[in-house]
Structures are given as structure tokens and as C-alpha cells.
Amino acid sequence: MEEELKCPVCGSLFREPIILPCSHNVCLPCARTIAVQTPEREPPLPALLQPPRGPAAAAAGAAAGPEAECAAGGGGGEHADKLSLHSESDSGYGSYTPSLKSPNGVRVLPLGPAPAGASAAAPRGAGPSSSLTCPQCHRSASLDPRGLRGFPRNRLLEAIVQRYQQGRAAARCQLCDRSPPEPAAVACEQCEVLYCAACQLKCHPARGPFAKHRLLPPPGLQGAPGGGKAAARKLPTCADHELENYSMYCVSCGTPVCYQCLEEGRHGQHEVKALGAMWKQHKAQLSQALNGVSDKAKEAKEFLVQLKNILQQIQENGLDYEACLVAQCDALVDALTRQKAKLLTKVTKEREQKLKVVWDQINHCTLKLRQSTGLMEYCLEVIKENDPSGFLQISDALIKRVQVSQEQWVKGALEPKVSAEFDLTLDSEPLLQSIHQLDFIQMKLPPVPLLQLEKCCTRNNSVTLAWRMPPLTHNPVDGYILELDDGDGGQFREVYVGKETLCTIDGLHFNSTYNARVKAFNSSGVGPYSKTVVLQTSDVAWFTFDPSSAHRDIVLSNDNQTATCSSYDDRVVLGTAAFSKGVHYWELHVDRYDNHPDPAFGIARINVVKDMMLGKDDRAWAMYVDNNRSWFMHCNSHTSRTEGGVSKGATVGVLLDLNKHSLTFYINGQQQGPPAFENVEGVFMPALSLNRNVQVNPFHTQKGRPYLSHQPESTMAKYGTDMVKTHE
């Protein structure tokens, strides 16, 4: 609150504050220093409020514009008489030319000389041709004949200042080392520090930069501002009628008035209200306005707490990033050191190899040279002998030895086997460039992936989704997360996480609607989801034999619609569709059946064993049959032997009811034995195992009651006989 209690001119607490027409306050002594007297050649105030006359006045009026004319021509009672809105480009009356700066930072006018003819004893600003410029908003106010006494005294502010001064604690020196500190002798208004006499001489001498500081008695002492007992507050009296107290409030002028103000007629035609009622009303309005300010102050405090938390986080994150940077650079230095050691090892090995080769060559050459030199010296001594018979006895042998010794120095024997140069060149330029380009990258979350609808499709109960990143995307992407719901409007689940932008999901429900979405992620986090794409699986299933899952001994033909196996051992082939719910029925036609083999028909998991009869492992459920009877088999367990077999031209039907979780078989339209298996759950694919030249071809599907084998010709024509189709 202290800043609200300081004068904008002197920067000290208000002394005898007065209210200017612009609602700002100023000390009465300060008002005397900034009051400006108008030169005698200037017209009086009433003339200024009239429209300008004459060529010069017309030019000034034209320059000021219609707004100035409105401001100058509009009357309005006492408030308009005291307040002039002329700018500095007007006639100059009441203009504001700041040249001095107060301790509070507000520039004020210098103290000018009194006009000629003015009484030396008259107070500055008391003349009728004077004006006062507000040091805060720079609006000029004209003084009436009463001078500064014409401005109302702000007794409320004066009382608050007095209470504020009295409310200060007993003053003690703020720089003493003693405990308790010595009583304060002075208070520096600029430093806002209390000093005892000793500390004031030591820490605040009256010279140098402290020479212009204002030393005041400390608060609470007799004679200090606000010291002693507060004088009894008097009821404010009217500025125009000093003997009358304020009793009413003029709503038009916005000022308290007395009884005589209403009787004399100045406010007689104005709207007036009771002073107490308006006092309560304005207090309520101020309280209501303060509530809004209080809310904003609360938000500001919360915002400051948020900013302080951000400061703390910045400090912590800065330390973390510094540690991370040091660790990364240390890791690079360690890696470079290890690589340096490896390269030095290579250089050492290369040097040792070259040295070994050279030393071996030196030793070999030295030995030969010593042998040749010894032989030469011996031959020279032999030549010196004069015994012809003795010479001829050994000359042939010596000649041969010399010739052999000469032949030992073949071409290349006197050439170094290795070079002194090292054929090792370290290409460090790319690494140097990388080091020079080593810098921080602004990691951000990846953007929203774009689904490529033209590449998204469904086939039977499989869906394929494709997506890409938006063009001109600079944020790195480490991978993608593809999510799919359950086909019944349930929650999404992750079905793929990886770097690919194309994914196929198999084994979904037939005749179901799936919603899919994708998002990208990097080291900064996970980005937003893409738009949701809706995919509809087939209402019925078409499938052929799958060459990718068939054993290599299975031969597929007729666009993978016919399966044959000439191997003696059983081999498995699967269909291209997978079933997880609903009722499915398909039929297989036995085109070739010789030598009484035993093919097996049924369902299997995708990871079923392919080199044994269907049903021998725990991932297949089957019926194997010969020309006389059949058995159901799962986990190599044979059950439910039933008479009746197959032959060339027979039709085998498979009914998979995933609603009842049962599997039933048919031969030529008649149910073969009881329901083969119960409690089958999961995802299954059509399967069969063949051997010994059996050939099977998909026949047709039954619409309606799926376990019946016969159907009208129109249905056969619609679905054909070349592919298997199942209903869900």
C-alpha cells in the first residue's frame, strides 16, 4: 500500500493531499511548485472555452480538429471550469513541458518566475490566471481566484497516511550487530533503512552519493511524521462555505455539497441524494469491484506459484540435461578411446609384421653374404697357389660352388620384401563433420498419421490398413501403434506396434464392423490418434487352399482350388479363411480315391503340424475315413468309430458351429456319427490331410440350413462350384 500513499512529485508520503479534477492526488506543497502562471498576453479561461476567433485562432482550431472544438465548446459546470483538455498543440495555455524528474520518477515543470506585476508575497499559483498540470496524466486544470484552495482536500487519504505512519513498529537500527539493536536515530527516505547514530555515520555519511538523500526522524518518535497521538479528526467542511458541513451528494457533479450550495442555486437544479445513502452505495460498488480485483490477485498468486514451479523445473531439467549431455559426450569419448586403442593395435601389428619380415630378410641376406664372402676369400687364396696339380684337384668343385653361390642371388633376392610405408589411411573426415554438426535437436511429438484409405481393404475376415506421415514432417518417428476395437463397439486394443506402415489383421469376425486408428511415437512420447476408419468384414466367407501354409508334398491346382498328394505319408493343407464365431459349413468333393487311403477332414490352428495326419497333434480336430468306416481324432486319440466310408465322387461336409462350440461331419449329406467334438473355442481354419494320390476339390456351400448338402440350382449358380463359401 505504501506506493499508493506517496506523492507522484516528491516521492514521499502525502502531506496535505489535494484532489485534482482528474481524480489524482498531489501534496499541497508540491502543487505550489508545479503551478504555472499564464502570461498576460494569454486570454483568460472563459475566452479559451469559446470558439476561436481571427485568422490565427481559426488556423489553430483547424489544426486541432473537430474533437478540440467539441472539447473547447462544451460547458459543464464547475468541473469543466477547472479542467482544460487542450493539448500541447493548442494555444499553449496549460501546456505540459516536462524538464525535471521527481524522486518518484515523474517529470514535473520547473519552478518558473512569477509574472510581472504579481505581488511577491502572494503564493505561487494563487493568481486567477494560473493552471496546474497533473504530474501523472498530464491534464491541465485551471485555478479559480481561490487558487489551490479551490481543490478539495483529500482528508481520507491524509487520515490513512497518518494511520500508516502510526502503525509502524518502534524504530530500531537495521544495521546494528548488537542484540538488541540500538534505537534508530534517523530514517533514510531513499534507502528505506533505519540507522542509529553510530551506523548512520559509518554506513550513511552525508557526502558522496548519500548527500542528496533525505534523512527523516524514525517513525514513532515525537516530531516524526505521524509521531505522537493522532489529532482528533474534524468533520470536513464545504470548500465554498467553510462554516457548513457536507450534508448531501450532487449526482450530476459527483461531489459532496452543503445546504448553502443547494440554496444558492449552483446545484439547485442538479440531482442530489443523501450523503449517507450514497456513501453506502459507493462503498458497496467499491467492494464489488474489489472482489474482481481479488479474484485476479488470487489468479496472479497461483500464476506466480506456477512460474516458480517452472523455475524449479527448469533448474532440475537443466541439471538433468547437463548430466545427460556429459554422459553422452563421455560415451562418445569412451567409444573414440576404445576405437583408438583398436586402431593402435592394428598399427602395432602391422609394424611388428613389417619388422619381422625385414629382420628375417636381413638375417638371411647377412648369412648368404658371409658365406659368399668366405667363399670369395677362399677362392682368391686358392688362385694364389702355384701348385697346378693341387689346383686342378679342387678347381672343378670350386667352380661349381661359385656358380651355385652366384645362382643363389637370383632376381629379387636383393629387393626388400616389404615397404617402409604403412598402407593404413584413417578416414576421419566424416567423423569430424559429425562432431562439428553435433547439436541439440528439438524433439517434438510426432504428428497425426494419415490413413491411406485407397490402400485399406477387407478380404473375408481379414483387414489391411495402410498409413503414412504428413508431408514435410521433420519430427522423427520411432514406430506406430495400431488399435482396433472388438467389432461390437467395444474398447480399442493394440494389434500392432512397429515401424511398418502396412498391417494385415487376420482371424476377425465375419459380418462385423471394426473401427481402426493409428498413432506414432518417438522418444518424446506418443502423438495424437489419426482419424478412425470403419472396416466391414465379409458377411460370408470364400476361401481356397493356402499354398503358403501347405506342406511341400501337397500339389495345388485350379487356382488353388484342387489339392492332391502323391506322398505315402499324410500331408496337411489349410484354407485361406479363419473362423472365430458364427456357424460355418463347407463341403469337399473327393475327385480321386485309389488303393483305400484314409484322408482326414476338419479344422486346425494356423500352427498345426503339417507332416502327419490331421488330428494327431493338439492343434487339429478331424475325421479320418477310409472306404468302410471313419474315426474322430484329436491329440492322437481315436474315438467314435462309425461305419460308412468314402469313394471316388463322395462329398464330405464339415459343420463348425461356434455358437454351440461343436464340430459335426457329414458324408454325402448324411451325418456321420454323433457330433464329433464339443467345447471347441478359438480361431480355426479349414484343414485336411491327404496321401497316396487322393485328390479333393471344394464343392459348394449350403445357404440357409448349412448341414444340408443339396440346394436349388439357382443357389449353385450364384455361388459356383469352384470355391468354398461359408455363412456366419
From TrEMBL:
SUPFAM superfamilies: B-box zinc-binding domain (SSF57845), Concanavalin A-like lectins/glucanases (SSF49899), Fibronectin type III (SSF49265), RING/U-box (SSF57850). Residues 42-99, 115-138 are annotated as: Disordered. Residues 522-708 form the B30.2/SPRY domain. Residues 446-540 form the Fibronectin type-III domain. Residues 78-89 have a biased composition (Basic and acidic residues). Keywords: Coiled coil, Cytoplasm, Cytoskeleton, Metal-binding, Repeat, Zinc, Zinc-finger. It is found in: Cytoplasm, Cytoskeleton. Residues 297-353 form a coiled coil. Residues 383-441 form the COS domain. Residues 47-71, 115-131 have a biased composition (Low complexity). It holds the Pfam family zf-B_box. This is Tripartite motif containing 67. The lineage of its organism: Eukaryota, Metazoa, Chordata, Craniata, Vertebrata.
